[in-house]
Write a structure and sequence with these properties.
13 helices; 413 residues; mainly alpha; single chain
């Protein structure tokens, strides 16, 4: 597209800013607000079909509610933040408190929409982390001391029950009372309780980073430094520079088939999150530059559509992608990663990647008629997936637009 041409030489990012702003306001915000707000049962309704038609309310999960609360809390802090977005966050926080387990501490996984009783009461650190992420951002927006207190309480619970002092990182799966699950018991995310995963630890990283930004808690700083070291020394495949997903408690790779599959979106998400954390900690970025270049090069070689832009879903390690759908959240994380790497290095390859991915998003991922982004796009035309469901919220693409706009304004104003 013409508006994306010649930017590298002119450093004129005005048209890119306009495009990102248009996607955020006209496409994302207009879809989610006020449609996602559940005035009947409370919280947010995350149940919308592939055509953008809102359906009846369904059970509500901690992850979906937390992600949407995070988005409105974050949106309220932007230059375009309107009072209505903070009110939308207030609405989500009021409902989120229903997930709290008053007997055992922590949050339930899922609630029944009618009774607000738990339908899935076990604890998973992935879900707890999203709650911490949302609470920390909402505390920054609302400036309510009680919210900060709840975030601190949750952080201490996670650390008490899940942190592994012997091996580092976090154990992930627990029962309702925070008891360890039997090794053969299948937890909510379908992985063995004996595993630690790259995916969950990405979300632990983003949550504790937000919490540390809020509180400057010394224990949170300690855990963040530990996590950054684990990502670099334990989770990255040394041969390729990509990240494996399944590990034993002592961080030995689990050689299941799924661990031979690289998710390009998760690699991109980790790249920019680790840079955000490192800047907050005044951690030397030079330590990350070489490994991040290797990781990015892996995605460029095996998981990137050079013709149309955007990244594919996943592929076996060391081989070209064999799951070639363009998934909405992967494109969102790729946009932030590309722009962050360009800011870090000034190298044209990352700007080209960012612009080509944005070109794909504008032309094919965004649904300009019904609103929001298509969940999965195959080729250029075949689209699948609901516009809103338990995993499809405004968190990924909304965050990408906000972060990229702030990066552009701060760096190339």
């Amino acid at each position: 597209m013409a508006f994306l041409e010649k930017i590298h030489h002119s450093k004129d990012f005005g048209s890119v800013r306009d495009t990102l702003s248009l996607i955020l306001t006209d496409n994302i915000l207009n879809f989610w607000y006020p449609g996602v707000i559940d005035y009947k049962y409370g919280g947010y309704r995350l149940n919308c079909d592939v055509n953008g038609v809102w359906l009846q309310s369904s059970r509500k999960s901690l992850i979906e509610q937390s992600r949407t609360l995070w988005f409105f809390s974050r949106m309220a802090q932007t230059n375009d933040g309107d009072r209505k977005y903070l009110k939308a966050a207030d609405h989500g926080y009021a409902f989120l408190k229903n997930f709290w387990d008053h007997e055992n501490g922590g949050f339930y996984w899922e609630l029944d929409v009618d009774t607000r009783n738990p339908t899935m009461a076990k604890k998973h650190i992935c879900a707890q982390s999203f709650a911490l992420y949302a609470l920390s951002e909402y505390a920054l927006s609302s400036k309510q001391p009680a919210v900060t207190e709840l975030a601190s309480k949750l952080f201490r619970l996670i650390d008490q029950h899940a942190h592994d002092p012997d091996n580092g990182g976090y154990n992930e799966c627990f029962g309702e009372h925070w008891e360890e699950l039997n090794p053969d018991e299948i937890p909510y995310l379908g992985l063995s309780p004996a595993f630690k995963t790259f995916n969950t630890h990405i979300h632990v990283l983003e949550a504790i980073t937000a919490y540390y930004h809020l509180t400057k808690d010394p224990l949170a700083e300690e855990r963040l430094r530990e996590l950054l070291e684990l990502f670099q020394t334990k989770m990255m495949d040394k041969n390729y520079g990509a990240y494996l997903n399944h590990f034993s408690k002592n961080w030995m790779p689990i050689l299941v088939e799924a661990n031979k599959r690289i998710c390009y979106g998760h690699d991109m998400e980790y790249l920019w999150l680790s840079l955000e954390t490192s800047r907050l900690l005044d951690f030397p970025l030079v330590r990350l530059v070489f490994s991040h270049k290797r990781t990015f090069s892996y995605t460029l070689k095996y998981g990137y559509d050079r013709k149309r832009g955007g990244i594919y879903d996943h592929g076996s390690i060391g081989k070209n992608a064999n799951a070639c759908a363009k998934v909405w959240w992967s494109q969102a994380e790729a946009l932030i990663a590309g722009l962050e790497m360009y800011k870090l290095t000034g190298e044209k390859v990352y700007l080209d990647f960012f612009l080509n991915t944005l070109n794909w998003v504008v032309g094919y991922q965004v649904d300009w008629s019904a609103g929001e982004w298509h969940q999965r796009v195959y080729g250029k035309r075949r689209r699948q997936g609901a516009k809103a469901e338990a995993w499809k919220t405004p968190y990924h693409n909304g965050r990408a637009m906000i972060n990229c706009l702030e990066l552009l304004n701060a760096t190339w104003n």
